[in-house]
Each structure stands twice: as structure tokens, then as C-alpha cells.
Amino acid sequence: MHAQVTGRPVANSQLQPFEITTKECCQSCRSKFSGERTGGQPVQKLPLRCSNSCLTGHNILMCGPPGAGKSMLAARLPSILPPLLPQELLEVSMIQSVGGLLAGGALTDRRPFRAPHHSASMAALVGGGINARPGEVSLAHHGVLFLDELPEFQPQVLDSLRQPLETGEVAIARANRRVTYPARFQLVAAMNPCRCGRAAEPGYACKRAPNAQCMAQYQARLSGPLLDRIDLQIDVPAVSAADLMLPPPAEGSAEAAARVARARAVQQQRYAALGAAGVSTNAACPAGLVNDVAQPDAAGLKVLREAADAMRLTARGFHRVLKLARTLADLDGDTKVGRIHVAEALSYRSREVADG
Question: What residue stretches are annotated with the AAA+ ATPase domain (predicted)?
């Protein structure tokens, strides 16, 4: 497309470059939850440091009964996460343009939030089709991919997430070409403890099978390698009437966003000093740098070695514990990863990881 220029330039004048900031073009794109307080639940039900770690890019799986607030908490993430950096904005805009989502050329510095239905196919999730279009994992690049009712997805569809979660990109091969899209996203997943969602309730007898068996069969739909890539695996308790009548928490989205921005700034400066291109959070730290930035002290190393044997940690799990421990140390303002940080990081890997 060509634009017609009218008028004549003034002699000896210098044309100034036109600049547009994301602040100017994104005010209408802010989350409808921005500044909103979530009532007495569910934020107060989550460990504060756990939610802080989630907001600094670590993958999280929330398990709890229906109505516990898992989906509501995930929906508020875009209003709390920091805006996209200029390079991130460029990458996200390019992917959205290829995917046909950049309506009218409008830009937004809000991090993507994608929430596909559990009936989504593998092509919809990782990309594909005749034209090798980007899937949900690429459309969530530098943002959040929220998978609600995680065990309801087809197992082979979930396992297709393993490569992008590890490498931050996804390759789509066709007969005459091969396309690689970036897919550096944060996985936020939610699930019920069983198919009916009530097996963990005291005094409830599941009609399908004994409660423990019902829960085990349902959760077995998640493969060990997928769980091994999730740093935070937490239980969200049910909401009681007393919880609903609690006053709103003192901290709303604006305050939480400022806290997250400070934590991310520390990590961003760390990796910039190390010359790690494209890395701005501990969650995205490559394996080759983990020992340099997250080496625990002697007491922490002892705890980690003992837990590695007792919990049968894989090499991937070992590194993910270290990266999460580094984030917890950052939240405490500590330059060194200590025993308490390692122990807390291990406590969030509570679900059994099966071999596979």
C-alpha cells in the first residue's frame, strides 16, 4: 500500500522521527479486572510467596474443587503481570499478525492470555493446518496459556506441550516447508481432584469408585513428563460461606502489579549483566546458567541432594527446583539461595511424577 504525501518540505528542515508509545495505544486494552479486588477469596487462600513466584513466570497447577476460584485467579493474571518490553511487543505483534489477530494494526503492551477449551485439537494448541498457522502456544508467547480442566484434554494433546515448555519454540513441518514459531509462555493450569470434583470433601462417598481410587484414576491422565515441567503444584481449598463474607484484601491488582514489577526488575538486571539474550526471568533461565545464578549454600545443597534421592527428581526437576528457589530468594532480598528456599521450592512439587 502506498500513501500520498502532500505539501513541500521546508528548506534546511530536518524531519523528526514519529514515535508512538505503547502507553498511548493501549489504554483501551487494559484488563477489565485492573485495580479490582477479588474479595475474600481465592487470593487469600494461596500462599503469598507461591502467588509471587507464579507471577514471575513459573508454571503452576492449581488443584481444587469446583467453585474454589481457580479460574477467577487465572483470569486476573493479565492485570497484574508487567507490560511487554519493546522487543517482546514486537515479537508478540508479529505472531498475532500471522495469526490474523492484529485487528486494525492496533498494538497492546498487555501480555497475551489464551484459554483454549479442553476439546481443542493438537493442531489448535501447537499450530498446523495447510498454511502452518501458529497455535495457542505461540499466540501465548510472552504471556499466559491457561488450561482449565487440565485432565479433560486429550493426553496426546497435553504431551504436545512438552517440547515448547522446554525449548520455548514449536516446529511445524509440512511437505514442502518447516516453520518454527516462538512459544515462550507461562503455563497456568487448573483441575478438579477427580471427575466429580468432590472426592476430597470430608464424608463424601464417590459413586464411581472409592474416593482415593477415583482421584488416582483421574489424575493419572496427566503424564509424568508434563508434571515434571510444572514448578508450582498447589491445592486450592474449597470456599466456605465465611470466606465469601470476608472483606476485600488490602492488596488489589495495582499493588500486586507493582510488587511483581520489582521482583522482575531484579531478575532482568541479573540476566542482562550475564549477557543472556532473551532471558529476563529465573523461570526462563537456561540449564547452563542455573548453577551460576542459583547455586545454594552448603545446607541448601544437602537438602537438595537428599530430596533428589527421596523424591526421585529428574535432571529437569532438579534444575526447576533450583530456579524456583532462586526466585524465592529474590523475593526475600537474599543474594544467596539458602536451605529454607530449597525446602520451600521442593514443597511445591507435591504431586507424584510418574516415569515416562
Answer: 56-240
pLDDT digits (tens, 9 = 90+) for 218-271: 989 999 999 999 999 988 888 777 777 777 666 556 676 677 778 788 999 999
Architecture of domain 34-244: 3-Layer(aba) Sandwich (3.40)
Residues 42 and 240: beta-carbon distance below 8 Å: no
Residue 202 confidence (pLDDT): 77
Distance, C-alpha 241 to centroid of its chain: 30
Residue 310 grid cell: 527421596
31-69 residue pLDDT tens: 444 444 444 444 445 555 666 777 788 999 999 888 888
Question: Which of 345, 327, 76 has its CA nearest to residue 234?
Answer: 345
Q: Which three cell numbers stand for residue 242?
A: 465465611
Q: How far is CA 334 from CA 47, 175, 339, in A?
A: 19, 52, 12
Instruction: Tell me the average pLDDT of the chain.
Output: 82
3-state helix vs strand vs coil in the chain, percent to 5 = 45, 10, 45
- HSE (side-chain half, CA atoms, 13 Å) at 277: 1
Domain residue ranges in the chain = 34-244, 285-356
Contact between 204 and 211 under an 8 Å Cβ cutoff? The reply is yes
CATH tag for 285-356 (out of 3.40.50.150, 1.10.8.60, 3.40.50.300, 1.10.10.10): 1.10.8.60
Dihedral sign of CA atoms 134, 125, 321, 80 in order: positive
Q: What digits encode the pLDDT tens for the residues 262-306?
A: 878 899 999 999 998 888 899 999 988 999 999 999 999 999 999
